[in-house]
Fold:
Amino acid sequence: MASTAASRSPWRNFIVFADSFHENTGGVLVLHRLCDLLNRSGETAFLWPARKPLWNPAKPWASAWAAFRYHRRRWRKPYRTRPGFVTPVATQEDLRGAVVVYPEIVFGNPLRAENVVRWLLHRPGFHKGTIGFGPDDRFFFAQPAFNDPKLNPDESNLLKMVVLRDDMYRQTNFGPRSGTCYFLRKGKGRPIVHDLTDSQCVDGLSHEQLVEVFNRVEMCISYDPYTVYSYYAALCGCVSVIVPLEGISKEQWYPDPCDRLGVAYGFDDVEHARRTTPDLLAYLRDLQSPSNPTVQHFIAQCRRYFPIDEQAADRGDAASTTS
Structure:
């Protein structure tokens, strides 16, 4: 797989730093999807397992011990990729000159890359309380609310996508519904504002269980304002409601009206959710397509941020040919 990917693009490799695939972890899902879409766009992209240590020639014994621990853990729990995604796993040779994409939760530069992109999948510091970015890092953000203008003044650097499970999340119940369900997820700690009578918390349920609930209840209420599960609920025919953030308007929550399709921002916005749900599926399909304009913008920006010295590359090729 790696050799096939490497033959497609004469430019730098992309290395996406990601944990093992897990279908219920949104950040991991989109990192694997980014690698997949980059390859489908004709780029050369690989995953680097987040727990895999990089060999350091200056510290051979420490590197050997770290490698031993990693491979022992990997033997017990192998690194997983998603079937159907084009996501080859990188070797150390693939790192040479690559653009490395870290999510915002990664502290420092564990791959010692010269060309670093930080993808803000949430507000910097939200998960761990600390940030560890480099002075030359470039930034992209999954939602405008996650961008920090002090780190990234370029408001065009939006990089958003979904992993659309429309093979599962679809409406099968067109009859009566009753009750509600709700998510806390990253909204844990926010005050509960809806009636808990006949209301089920669905945090931690499997996809199969969620499909059943979404096709049974009348309304899904999310205290996490930025979860793809609100869209999944709408696809199943459930009225999907976001509990508004204090002091944040509907337009500030999602500036792009397309991101508000099928979802109500507050209980007074339910009619909007019902009216726009029929347009939701087509929009989500566009976001997971290689033609996704934010992915194409990301590629173009990276080529601008990290240009290749063609003359130096030619000299390197000539030297390798004569040696």
The chain has two domains: 2-162+289-322, 180-285. Residues 1-8, 311-323 have pLDDT under 50 and may be disordered. The longest helix spans residues 60-76.
